[in-house]
Design brief:
This protein is an alpha+beta fold and about 220 residues long. It has one domain (about 15-200): Alpha-Beta Plaits (2-Layer Sandwich). About 40% of the residues lie in helices and about 10% in strands. It contains 8 helices and 4 strands; from the N terminus they run βαββαβαααααα. The chain has helices at about 30-45, 70-90, 110-120, 125, 140-145, 165-175, 175-190, 195-205; strands at about 15-20, 50-55, 60-65, 105. The chain has a 4-stranded antiparallel β-sheet with strand order 2-3-1-4, with helices on both faces. The longest helix has 20 residues, at about 70-90. The radius of gyration is 18 Å and the shape is globular. It starts with 13 loop residues before the first strand and ends in a 17-residue tail after the last helix. The model has no long low-confidence stretch (mean pLDDT about 90).
């Protein structure tokens, strides 16, 4: 299924994925990750993006973010990528592209799939065998969501306020391969991840088609 033009639905969570060019490494030491998170906070505040979850992997990043303006995603993420590329090129005396051409962005139905997407993001280090437990990975939001430890990168949010920490921690630890596959599919196409009703609602407010249309010759009803 082909990708669609990027969707930005104001006040809805979006799963952002940004990979290194040719899937190459983008973080080389602790200082790099610290600089990226500092830049993430700065530009998300400047361009009105809330951060609900994140994970920095060696060659890519995942961010769950809520844009407050139509231009928030493009300007915020674009600014972060530019500043971090300049930082890496200067520090390591390199030139050229660091990231792929564009970041992937998928609007999420928070009432049905928010937990699945957050778990997918925060279990990345476990799937990559960097750690045994999600909340042991320093460069993600898992520890904050699973234990309640304050993470200054995250924006104040009430999406977990009615659920105790143990409930989410158990959910996070359990994993779910089928749910992960659904998240990957939505990420690869850029189409909204949610119910048909959710997608139709977004189509109405955005004024564009978001559901894949069937391709083929019109049916001939003549006999």
């Amino acid at each position: 299924m082909s990708r669609i033009a990027r969707v930005c639905a104001i006040n809805y969570p979006h799963h952002i994925t940004q990979r290194g060019n040719n899937q190459e490494q983008v973080f080389f030491d602790i200082e790099d990750k610290d600089f990226y998170l500092k830049t993430l906070k700065k530009y998300c505040a400047r361009y009105e993006l809330e951060i609900w979850a994140y994970c920095l992997m060696p060659n890519h990043v995942h961010i769950l973010t809520v844009p407050k303006k139509e231009t928030s995603l493009a300007r915020g993420l674009g600014g972060i990528n530019l500043v971090y590329t300049q930082y890496v090129n200067r520090k390591y005396n390199r030139t050229g592209r660091l990231w792929q051409n564009r970041f992937y962005s998928t609007p999420i139905d928070k009432d049905a799939y928010l937990w699945n997407v957050t778990r997918y993001i925060e279990r990345n280090p476990v799937r990559a065998r960097l750690v045994n437990l999600p909340d042991k990975y320093r460069w993600s939001s898992a520890k904050s969501h699973a234990t309640g430890v304050v993470d200054s990168v995250l924006s104040p949010s009430d999406w977990l306020k009615d659920i105790d920490l143990k409930t989410y921690r158990d959910f996070l630890l359990a994993g779910n391969d089928e749910a992960d596959s659904q998240v990957r599919l939505s990420t690869s196409t850029g189409r909204p991840f949610g119910s048909d009703m959710f997608i139709k609602h977004l189509e109405k407010i955005l004024g564009r088609d978001l559901i894949a249309k069937k391709v083929g010759r019109p049916r001939n009803n003549e006999k």
